[in-house]
Protein 1
Amino acid sequence: MTEAVIISTARTPIGRARKGSLVSLDAFDLAEVVVPAVLERSGVPARDVDSLVLAEAYQGGGVIARNIAVRLGLDDIAGVATNQHCAGGLSAVAIAAGSVRAGMDKVVIAGGTESLSNSAMTTTRKGADGQPVTWVSASHPESPEAPAFDMSITVGENTARELGLTRLDVDEWAVYSHAQAIASIDGGYFTEQIVPVPVPQPDGSTRLFDTDEFPRRGTTVEGLAQLRLLHPELPNPTVTAGNAAGLNDAAAAVTVASDEYAEAHGLRPLARIRSWASVGVAPALTGLGPSLAIPKALDRAGLTLADIDLFEVNEAFCSVPVATIRKLGIRPEIVNINGSGASLGHPIAATGARMVVTMVAELRRRGNALGVVSMCAGGGMGAAMVIEAL
Ligand SMILES: CC(C)(COP(=O)(O)OP(=O)(O)OC[C@H]1O[C@@H](n2cnc3c(N)ncnc32)[C@H](O)[C@@H]1OP(=O)(O)O)[C@@H](O)C(=O)NCCC(=O)NCCS
């Protein structure tokens, strides 16, 4: 059977939305940096790329991938925009892998791009006179137990309550996540993944932004305990800015090719995409998505939890990885060893691809074989992918 292999990866550093280094660039600008970098790193001539699949979540619904292909002068490359909310960047990679494994496309660039600094404000027509009013497309219907636009309840608090997690449980995880992210930055583990972003400055010069800026040095449980609860009115509330994912800007992509293409062109694959899976859950249980998606993806690969060396479970809120660990019985010390959403940041549509990029590099750095990336996704979903380093 044809295998889907990853032959190159790239990501921007992750910026802090509205307050950080990438506020002057939009999702198109970020993709315009990452796509040529991942193409160049692949060694594949542009004429051999069949398609560019890019996830977007808040950019207004156009075919962002096609826009980027044309911007880059790659008119012959078709573009597909996908949206699976927090899982969009992962489903873009899955779509690429599926097409390659089916023997259709030979090479696909796939990833996601997000600028929460510059997300689109949409309007819709309401009433008999069709007056425009501000509108955001909701991924699930509004309900008191699962507000469509307040994930701190729908994901953060509901997940903690479901598993009986305390604020200390999630704050301790946040401290761990920041420490892991900072150790990875200081160790230079992200350097080869990152493509620096030239950011125009007000004085006309350009600054190269090359390091993730969201992790906070010196994050402590005592410090986090001082932060304001987002929902103090709820019983046993847990969520603060310190244990939630950030609002962030970034893009990430990988080049997926068939193993036959890679071999025929003398390209050395970095990893094989073994399997992937998505699940739906009741929106109020969104945070439990990874605990269902991971076993489903493992089953498809003919693997068990015990086979996996490393996991990244996105910290949409820190209750999500803690809940996943407890539900599945995973060893915490092999989870989020480079940090995740609460520390590195969660640029929604880019996150899934960023996780694949990071997992490929970390498996190879450690000489490990198998990794799983997983996240919950707005609307009541979970997604997971099994990656094997080569
Ligand atoms: C939780 C949320 C509302 C906080 O927004 P915010 O107030 O802009 O958050 P900030 O990151 O600026 O943090 C606010 C303050 O908390 C404190 N803080 C945050 N993290 C901290 C840490 N690790 N240590 C110490 N203090 C911290 C700081 O005082 C910070 O202010 P400062 O940056 O001026 O020092 C926002 O991050 C959010 O909506 N997150 C969830 C995103 C989401 O839903 N994603 C989808 C998931 S399904």
Note: Residues 86, 151, 155, 178, 216, 219, 223-224, 227, 241-242, 244-247, 316, 346, 378 surround coenzyme A (CB under 6 Å).
Protein 2
Amino acid sequence: MDAPSLEILWQRSAVVAGEELCQHEPPCVPEKYVVTCRQVHTTITCRICGGSAFAADWGGATCSECNSVSVLACPTREELQTFYETFNKTYYGGGRERGSKERQRRYAMAYLAAVGRHTHPGTLLDVGSSTSPFPDAAAAAGYRVTSLDFVRPPTLRDDVAFIQGEATPRPELRAGFETVTCFAVIEHSTAPRELASALVSYCRPSGVIVLTTPLVGDYWERNTAGRSAWFGPPEHLHLVSRRGMELLFCGAGCELVDYRRLELSTPRWVARYGIAAVEGLCGALMRAATPSRWLARRNKHVAHAAPIALYVFRKQLL
Ligand SMILES: [Zn+2]
């Protein structure tokens, strides 16, 4: 028997909490549900697919259609500016400070290997480089690299061109690059759909767009009895599922040509995705046995797993 859907669980949790009847006319849910409107009606529009996303106390909403997570209230421009003014000084490549330089170098080489599987050295635009050594590594490998970011990375090589600003559609960059890369950036965006369409606009027809972002919405994450550890405004605002990524990029004229769970080595891969599988399996069993307990736990706890997905899209010829 399939576990109840998220929507049904939300309604059941409202029954458990049952404080008052729905005051809306006509009632928004079947009368047999004694509900708190606050719980059942707090849905927002998924900023990835436009579907219905259920809000939770931790500040995010999970889409019932694409399983992506959208922040309930986006930070203001001023809040983001203040946050990112100091971001590069304290960012250690998604982890602790110790060994961060070497880890970032290894990630940059893994990104370069992914790029190399689908394209040859040519023009490359890296969006949101931050402190990653990837632009320098790509330049050393023979790519003609441009970096686009709010702040110029301090270590950028002289032969890497730099454009300061936001990743919005720009006429001067239109179809200007054979490869567009955007590693660990889309989760920071207040407007992921607009960012995706800007990335597609920078890419030449038959060129590739290579991205990484936290993975949500696969079987393991969907069933884990804890929300994704990757969610955390003002830093991570939108966690886009594989289905969400396909909607964003395939809807803009691209084709998914590569998808994988990213790690630097086989032992690290087994550790990272082993944790995700164990949490997901335990969660699936709990969800089948005691669905309301599972939902309460998912909203209260944070998962240990931190899966990362790598996507390669090819822009189709017009
Ligand atoms: Zn959605």
Note: The first strand starts at residue 43 and ends at 45.
